[in-house]
Amino acid sequence: MTRGTAVTRRTAVVTGAARGIGQAIAARLVAEGWNVLLTDVDPGVGAAARALDGTGERAAGLVADVSRPEDAAAMARTAVEAFGGVDALVANAAVGGPETPLLDTPDDEIRRVFDINFFGVLHGIRAVRPELERTAARGATGRIVVIGSLFAQQPTPGAGAYSASKAAVQSLMRTLTLELAPLCTINAVAPGYVMTEMHREELDARSRRSGRSFEQERDRVAAEVPLGRHGAGADVADAVHYLLSGAEYVTGQTINVNGGVLTS
């Protein structure tokens, strides 16, 4: 693929893309004709990229820790080297944090959650801003989507650090909507109970505390959802694709993808 062709095809950086929601988002974008740089602390991110495009022409992987500004800079640099620029960032990388009451959670554990979930988003946006400025100079509008959470709006006891970090991310999104307009649109997608590895770990913890089986906990959660099921990564990817590929007049908004658990 020539550099000219790569620039014609839009490029997105997706963080936390080795598995789960991030991987589903990357797969949807590649299928829709985007170039995608998948990043993750998991070394398996390279294999995830090759599974989407074995040629390396439309998907590439990079091991990166978003909590480190230098790794965020490397993400932007690698996307430019591989595909000629950056048109969009999907800030998905996150950790769940300890399953403890917030006041009993050590400060260093809370800081780790914020380093990844909040500062990781901030570092990523800072890193891609120069490329989004170049996108704007070509007459196009850059796109940023941050992945929030149902728990930012409906906190859960025992997940206080995670809930607070995701609430901070959504506040960051609203602030940058004003500060970076009209350079780019910035929106959030807030998943609910999506059956990812992180959610399975949460169900395992619930099971240990309650004495119920994993399957019983899974079914109890699904029963709380008006649509009667857990979400899938593809459900979140649908919303992200809409915000990246259309939605020209949508910015500063949160799209809830939670099956009706929380209505707006």
Q: What is the CATH superfamily classification of the largest domain?
A: NAD(P)-binding Rossmann-like Domain
What is the CATH class name of the largest domain?
Answer: Alpha Beta
Shape: globular
Number of domains: 2
Percent of residues in beta strands: 5-15%
Order of helices and strands: HEHEHEHEHHEHHEHHHE
Low-confidence stretches: 1-7
By DSSP, the count of extended strands is 7
Rg (C-alpha, Å): 18 Å
Largest sheet: 7 strands, parallel
CATH architecture of the largest domain: 3-Layer(aba) Sandwich
* Widest sheet: strand ordering: 3-2-1-4-5-6-7
| CATH fold-type name of the largest domain | Rossmann fold
Mean pLDDT: 92
Judged by helices, strands and strand pairing, the structural class is alpha/beta
What is the distance, rounded to the nearest whole angstrom, between the alpha carbons of the first and last residues? Answer: 44 Å
Helix content: 40-55%
Number of helices in the DSSP assignment: 11
Task: Describe what this molecule looks like in 3D.
- The protein has about 260 residues and is α/β, with parallel strands linked by helices.
- The protein is built from eleven helices and seven strands.
- It has helices at about 5-10, 20-30, 45-50, 70-85, 105-115, 120-135, 150-155, 160-180, 195-210, 215-225, 235-245; strands at about 10-15, 35-40, 60-65, 90, 140-145, 185-190, 255.
- Strand 2, helix 3 and strand 3 form a beta-alpha-beta unit.
Topology (elements, then pairings):
Elements: H1 3-8, E1 11-15, H2 20-31, E2 35-40, H3 45-52, E3 59-63, H4 69-83, E4 88-91, H5 107-117, H6 119-137, E5 142-147, H7 150-153, H8 160-179, E6 184-191, H9 197-210, H10 214-223, H11 233-245, E7 254-257
Helix pairs in contact: 2-11, 4-6, 5-8, 9-10
